[in-house]
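Weekly sync, protein design subgroup
Attendees: M.S., D.O., the rotation student, P.L. (late)

Item 1: inverse folding check
M.S. brought a backbone from last month's batch and wanted to see whether the design step gives back something sensible before we order anything. D.O. pointed out we never logged the input encoding, so this time it goes straight into the notes. Structure tokens as presented (249 positions):
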């Protein structure tokens, strides 16, 4: 089984618990204005790698990874564009007792029979989903990513119904995703989910701007500066308010 891979980070520390072997897959349907991996957008390109090649490489890092309570995280791009590959990879990981995580925006979720069947099989071998919720407001989500968020919120509910553990992640972009009313509504939505184990605010940064320029794209948020620590803390309180209430019951 072959996957289209953009790159691999062998000792990642921010994409799930412990030290992670992070695979960035190639291809994404969203066009987030703050994307720091714009070079992963194109579908069908990237380096072709087999499951066995990846497992051979991953195995050499296992002592560090497993000693830290880590595992493998498949990010992107959008990993769910390559479900059969992911399923094959995670099956092999489970044979070695490796913790498996998917980092997804849910951008390609659909109720198509084949997609759901494949996704349900994949989730049998998935320990954790890092779910990137970009924006709760439909219009602003379209403006920010080029797509509506209806199917993304459905994906969140789908995972909740199946009790798949998730960490919710929200990129805090000043003037774009930090409106208190939007944060309040996103917090309310998160409070309806029954599978949230953690909520993370990811402060917006400009580390990916050079990639946009290298690709010949105009970077749309060049005048936006990263948020202050106070803004990040405020957003965290807003997003966790309903969730914490849920935990107490």
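Designed sequence read out in the meeting:
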């Amino acid at each position: 089984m072959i996957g289209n891979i953009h790159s691999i980070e062998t000792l990642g520390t921010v994409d799930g618990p412990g030290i992670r072997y992070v695979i960035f897959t190639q291809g994404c349907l969203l066009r987030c204005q703050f994307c720091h991996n714009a070079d992963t957008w194109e579908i069908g390109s990237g380096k072709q790698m087999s499951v066995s090649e990846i497992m051979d490489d991953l195995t050499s890092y296992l002592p560090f990874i497993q000693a830290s309570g880590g595992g493998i995280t498949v990010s992107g791009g959008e990993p769910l564009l390559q479900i059969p590959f992911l399923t094959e990879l995670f099956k092999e990981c489970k044979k070695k007792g490796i913790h498996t995580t998917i980092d997804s925006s849910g951008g390609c979720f659909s109720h198509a029979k084949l997609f759901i069947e494949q996704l349900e099989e994949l989730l049998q071998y998935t320990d954790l989903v890092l779910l990137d919720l970009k924006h709760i407001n439909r219009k602003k989500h379209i403006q920010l990513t080029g797509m509506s968020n209806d199917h993304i919120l459905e994906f969140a509910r789908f995972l909740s119904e199946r009790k798949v553990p998730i960490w919710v992640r929200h990129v805090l972009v000043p003037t774009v995703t930090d409106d208190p009313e939007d944060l309040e509504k996103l917090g309310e939505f998160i409070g309806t989910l029954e599978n949230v184990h953690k909520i993370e605010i990811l402060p917006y940064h400009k580390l990916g701007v050079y990639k946009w320029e290298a690709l010949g794209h105009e970077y749309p948020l060049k005048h936006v500066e990263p948020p202050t620590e106070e803004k990040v803390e405020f957003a965290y309180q807003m997003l966790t308010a309903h969730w914490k209430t849920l935990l107490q019951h």
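Discussion: The two ends are 45 Å apart (CA to CA). Strands lie at 2-12, 20-25, 47-50, 71-75, 99-104, 128-132, 166-172, 196-203.
Action: P.L. to compare against the previous round before Friday.
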